[in-house]
Write a structure and sequence with these properties.
Layout (H helix, E strand, L loop, with lengths): L1 E5 L4 H4 L3 H9 L3 E6 L4 H6 L3 E4 L6 H5 L25 H14 L4 H11 L3 E4 L4 H10 L2 E5 L5 H15 L8 H10 L9 H4 L3 E3 L14 E3 L23 E4 L5 H10 L3 H8 L5 E5 L2 H4 L8 E4 L4 H5 L4 E4 L3 H10 L3 E3 L7 H11 L2 E3 L7 H13 L1 H15 L4 H17 L1
Helix pairs in contact: 2-19, 5-8, 5-9, 6-7, 12-17
């Protein structure tokens, strides 16, 4: 069959879909990944076929919080659904619908690709509603492919329940205006599956899942993929001391944590260097050359995280889905300082419940508190034992190749119906 994957146009969203795309291609299916031209290179470097969409749109205008008014409310935890009650769910749902609207410029090109190529199945990023419309217009089955927790389905369900309880006109559903703008040019009626998919592929731990009774979930084991790179010689040997990967500062969320705390990356790494460990800092070499780092610190520049994690005794990060799930798959204990954006608080809470690591509250973060938490993590062997058991638990979930026959069956079913 022909499978089209439509991905939110940033590398951090493209990379996690590669293992499933490979599995489909290895099973004999034709696979193409639709993304912005500026991120197409990530696809082609993985040996897959890229379909550029949004050629008339500036990538930053589609994805940058500061340049796109529709995304401006997402910074600072704008869509985070933490482990407790979400009192501001209404505001978060409104922001979610604005992200849907922000990707409308992709609609015409995606639909054109689908109508011409006629895929049997479209797998789409939960934000990429134009792909669901393209699937409907072309007659393809379609499903969402998650990257983190399914905040969208939970928020949609919460909004629908509230509207059912509110007096007429008491809750103007923000989704209606967005969907009308997307569907009207094609004369399509609104259907819930255009927001939630005919089914949903979920690569996160099943016991992290938010309640969404109207969604059919298919679990898939997270297979880490960070791109290709030449492996340095020092990664071939076991480290003489416990190896600790520190990714704070590698991305915007980590840099935000450092800015808010007033601590510099050099201060953080300097405090951790007092421990008897080998520190590997995930920060680009250009930024690191201006830092006065301890001699014991290695700078990780261009090495995919999965190549590093297997030899680590701990990883320190801000709770992002890719690092969280990759470390869990590798059986590495984690120290999370959650910086909320999507599901970082929930990831930290889940990690602590599992006993596979520790968390430091963002408001309590400092080089000293991080030093104490990492020391406790490394000194207690229970964390490694639990992380190993968790890895074995997750390894029993279906992998991408195991999922392919199910995708084939569901595609046939939905194309007939």
């Amino acid at each position: 069959m022909r499978v089209l994957l439509a991905v939110f146009p940033v590398a951090a969203h493209v990379l996690p879909v590669v293992p499933l795309a490979w599995a489909l291609q290895n099973a004999g299916h034709q696979v193409r990944i639709a993304t912005h031209p500026d991120t197409a290179r990530v696809v082609t470097e993985a040996g897959l076929a890229a379909v550029p969409v949004g050629r008339g749109e500036d990538l930053a205008a589609l994805t940058d919080f500061t340049l796109n008014p529709a995304l401006s409310g997402l910074a600072g935890g704008g869509l985070d659904i933490g482990p407790g009650d979400c009192a501001d769910w209404g505001a978060k749902w409104f922001r979610t619908t604005r992200v849907f609207a922000a990707l409308r410029p992709l609609l015409e090109e995606l639909t054109g690709v689908a109508v011409r190529w006629r895929p049997d199945l479209v797998l789409w990023d939960p934000f990429c509603l134009p792909a669901a419309v393209a699937a409907r217009v072309s007659g393809a089955a379609h499903a969402r492919l998650l990257r983190g927790r399914d905040n969208i389905a939970w928020l949609r369900g919460r909004s629908a329940r509230y509207r059912g309880q509110a007096p007429d006109g008491g809750w103007p559903e923000p989704l209606e205006e967005t969907m009308q703008q997307i569907l009207e040019p094609y004369g399509l009626p609104y259907e819930e599956e255009l927001v939630l998919g005919q089914w949903t592929v979920d690569p996160m731990p099943p016991d992290m899942r938010l309640p969404a009774p109207d969604v059919r979930y298919e679990s898939m084991r997270w297979v880490p993929y960070g791109g290709g790179a030449t492996v340095p010689e020092w990664l071939h040997s076991r480290p003489l001391r416990p190896r600790v990967c520190v990714t704070l500062g590698a991305g915007e969320q980590g840099r935000r944590l450092l800015r808010e705390s007033g601590a510099g990356l050099a201060d953080v790494l300097g405090s951790l260097a007092d421990l008897d460990v080998e520190l590997v800092a995930a920060v680009d070499a250009g930024s690191a050359k201006d830092l006065r780092l301890p001699e014991r610190v290695r700078v990780l520049d261009g090495i995919p995280l999965p190549q590093l994690l297997s030899g680590c005794s701990a990883v320190v990060h801000h709770g992002g889905a890719e690092t969280f799930a990759s470390a869990a798959a590798a059986g590495v204990p984690q120290l999370i300082v959650p910086v909320p954006s999507w599901d970082e608080d929930a990831a930290a809470a889940h990690l602590v419940r599992k006993g596979a690591g520790v968390a430091v509250a963002r408001r309590k973060f400092s080089p000293r508190s991080l030093h104490a938490a990492l020391s406790a993590l490394l000194q207690n062997p229970c964390f490694q034992e639990t992380a190993t058991a968790w890895r074995e638990e997750l390894a029993r979930l279906p992998g991408p190749a195991d999922l392919v026959p199910m995708l084939e069956r569901l595609t046939r079913h939905h194309q007939r119906s």
